[in-house]
Amino acid sequence: MIEIKVKNSGIVFLQHFDDRNDGVLTIGESERSVPFKIQRIYYINNLKKRTAVRGKHAHKKQNQIIFCVNGSFVLNLDDGSKKQSITMNNPYMGIKLDAMLWHEMTDFSPDCVILVLADDYYDANDYIRNYEDFLSLVK
Ligand code: T46
To answer: What secondary structure letter does DSSP report for 111?
Structure first.
């Protein structure tokens, strides 16, 4: 069981039904198992290079939950004081990326599929992409 050590994060588990050889059905409900109203979803696939790096930013206001629905990757979290790396390989477990949490995704398996649920529409101004700016804002 993973213990979240950084601030502005947490774990969400999704209910799922295992039909054995017929597959697994997984459910997330807005404002129920997903602790906000879902305004946007996006997914990332075709991660051909294990050495790819994604993320490297924090959000000013937006809250999200990130899942690895297939394969694996490493989620690197940094709240400005503590850092934590989580191997994402459980499709039923989401990690909360609340506002003001620096996150980077690395070490992608070729079959990795990432799903993200967000509580707002895309807004380029919500991103903090400079790490020094993040450190001064998070204090
Ligand atoms: C995050 C991590 C986990 C849009 O136009 N609309 C969108 O909703 C998103 C998510 C992205 N974009 C555009 C912006 C960029 O031109 O897609 C391009 C790639 O986005 P970015 O470089 O931000 O991708 P990642 O993987 O570094 O970050 C993404 C999310 O953007 C970010 O919010 O928290 O996944």
So the answer is: T
Can you give the pLDDT at residue 73?
98
Query: What is the distance in A from the centroid of ligand 1 to the CA of 44?
Result: 9
User: Active-site positions?
Assistant: 57
Question: Which strand (E) or helix (H) includes residue 135?
Answer: helix 131-138
Name the phi and psi angles at 93, rounded to 5: -115, 120
| pTM higher than 0.85 | yes
Burial grade of 93 (CB within 10 A; 0-12, 13-18, 19 or more): middle
DSSP secondary structure string, 19-74?
-GGG-EEEE--BTTTBSS---EEEEE-----TT--EEEEEESS--EEEEEEES-EE
Q: Which atom of ligand 1 is nearest to the CA of 64?
A: 34
